[in-house]
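Researcher: Final request for today, and then I'll write up notes for the group meeting. The sequence and the SMILES for S-adenosylmethionine follow.
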Amino acid sequence: MEFFDYFSDLYGERWPGLLEALKGEGRAMELRFGDGLEPYYLDEASYFAAKVLDARPGMDVLDMCAAPGGKSLVIASMLQGQGSLQSNDRSPDRRLRLTHVLQNSLPAAWLEIIKVTGYDGMKFGLHKKESYDRILLDAPCSSDRHVLNSPAHLEVWSAKRVKRLSVEQGALLASAVDALRPGGVLVYGTCALSPLENDKVVEKILKKRPAMHVVPIDDVPPGADRTEFGVHVLPDTSEGRGPIYCAKLAKN
Ligand SMILES: C[S@@+](CC[C@H](N)C(=O)[O-])C[C@H]1O[C@@H](n2cnc3c(N)ncnc32)[C@H](O)[C@@H]1O
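Model: Predicted protein-S-adenosylmethionine complex:
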């Protein structure tokens, strides 16, 4: 099957172990922000990617592809009700879930600064030029762990789709870069296994937007791989966490 051949070629001797780990249990943590509020369970690698953004109270933050909302919860906890958080997602159904997650899991004082919107992420660069101190682009991706565990998705998986997604990710990243204030920081992330959706997307934007540079990421989860531009957390070496790729970029 195409999926298995593609990743076997890519990961070589590592693939059988990685495949087993991808089929296994993930490593979730509980987020709970107060008595009487609903807990939310998030992969530890996703928590790490959101923390990399380093949002601080008072900042204007955009979570460009935010549903169902796990990383928006982490960002809200960093802002502590000061500044602003725009949690955006284009899909109406997923946005509904996002709104419920935020309302059920966050204290009222933190909710006051959060706005849920439904714009196409591609438009931010044009309509919200240099407007945010921090942007998280947790991009739509092949979601390979999910694909592997879903026969219907495995059926429609193709190398062509990976390429198509990487073009879409590049366009969303260009939009995010243009919406970032000078001096601002952006985190690009996916849960994909292929470098085409990860480092290659970052490599292209660094060529297209010379004002951007890579910021080193400290405190990575145990067993995470360092790649040319970012960090890839994979479940075979990181105790079941991930897959999560993230790269941190700053604007001069
Ligand atoms: C990987 S998921 C985000 C997960 C989320 N950050 C979290 O931690 O819960 C990607 C999201 O991007 C949204 N999306 C896809 N294309 C988009 C676009 N052009 N503009 C805005 N959102 C988009 C999808 O609806 C999906 O919810």
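Model: The first helix runs from residue 2 to 11. The domain at 2-251 is CATH 3.40.50.150 (Rossmann fold).
Researcher: Thanks, that's everything.
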